[in-house]
Specification:
Helix Hairpins; 3 helices; mainly alpha; 117 residues
């Protein structure tokens, strides 16, 4: 019975580590997307400001609404990225805890290993 429990725990640990790696990959891709959005935003706002004096006031209002909406959504994406980063840090701490068990836990592991083999 104990052996089955440890096998299930190992399976869960593997699943957790794969999930952590998937989060890291997603974070990297999201960070690249944010960089691309940042560059696009800079270019668009620069062009809008450059042409502002010759634009009709309705066009300026529309441009401002689009810029505001973009900034709002951009903020949501940045919040998502920081949330993912926090989860990765939590997972990394768990991973480190599994790889480096506390010293008081080591004699129990040694005893378990001796008894099971």
């Amino acid at each position: 019975m104990e052996w089955q429990k440890s096998g299930m725990a190992l399976k869960q640990l593997k699943r957790m580590l794969w999930g952590l790696e998937a989060l890291r990959v997603f974070r990297d891709k999201l960070a690249k997307a944010i960089d691309a959005l940042d560059l696009a935003h800079t270019k668009v706002t620069g062009r809008v400001r450059m042409r502002e004096p010759i634009q009709h006031k309705d066009m300026r209002r529309t441009a401002q609404r689009i810029t505001d909406e973009f900034e709002k959504r951009y903020g949501h994406v940045q919040n998502t990225l920081s949330s993912i980063q926090q989860r990765i840090e939590e997972g990394t701490k768990l991973e480190e805890g599994v790889r480096n068990p506390p010293v008081f836990f080591m004699p129990c592991l040694v005893s378990w290993f001796i008894l099971t083999n």
